[in-house]
Design a protein that fits this description.
- The protein is an alpha/beta fold.
- It has a domain at 48-120: Nucleotidyltransferase, domain 5.
- The chain contains 3 helices and 5 strands.
- It has helices at 7-23, 71-84, 100-113; strands at residues 48-52, 58-62, 66-69, 90-94, 118-120.
- A 5-stranded mixed sheet has the order 3-2-1-4-5, with helices on one face.
- Helix 3 links the parallel strand 4 (90-94) and strand 5 (118-120).
Length: 123
């Protein structure tokens, strides 16, 4: 006999199909807690905006207005503002063409400078 009997295989597959069809509606999907991005109730009165253009040049807006700064000069200016107000929030707005690593480096420099509240501006 050189043929395989397929009838038991088909019977088993039909039984499994019926079992899965009956149990599938009974299974409840798991709940996924996805964080939501909302707007704060009130924007801070005083803040410093660090704007990074596509070339990597920094501009400060807010309490001080400076442009064409390097990393060290911008951090030094923000550190001077933190002496008066240690809870001063800093928002980073970067060009979409900029590498994300440069934004992360700026966040690291701000954290090392003692900025407690660092945020990212989005459109």
């Amino acid at each position: 006999m050189n043929e395989i009997n397929m009838v038991p295989f088909i019977d088993v597959m039909l039984v499994l199909l019926i079992i899965f069809m009956v149990t599938a509606p009974l299974i409840t999907p798991g709940v996924i807690n996805v964080p939501s991005a909302g707007q704060s109730s009130k924007a801070p009165d005083q803040r410093v905006d660090v704007q990074i253009d596509a070339d990597g040049k920094l501009s400060l807006a807010g309490q001080i207005q400076r442009s064409g700064l390097g990393d060290k000069e911008a951090v030094a200016a923000i550190r001077a503002l933190l002496a008066d107000n240690p809870e001063l929030p800093v928002m980073i707005a970067a060009d979409s063409e900029l590498r994300y690593q440069q934004v992360m480096n700026m966040m690291k420099l701000l954290r090392e400078a003692g900025v407690q509240r660092v945020g990212l501006a989005v459109k």
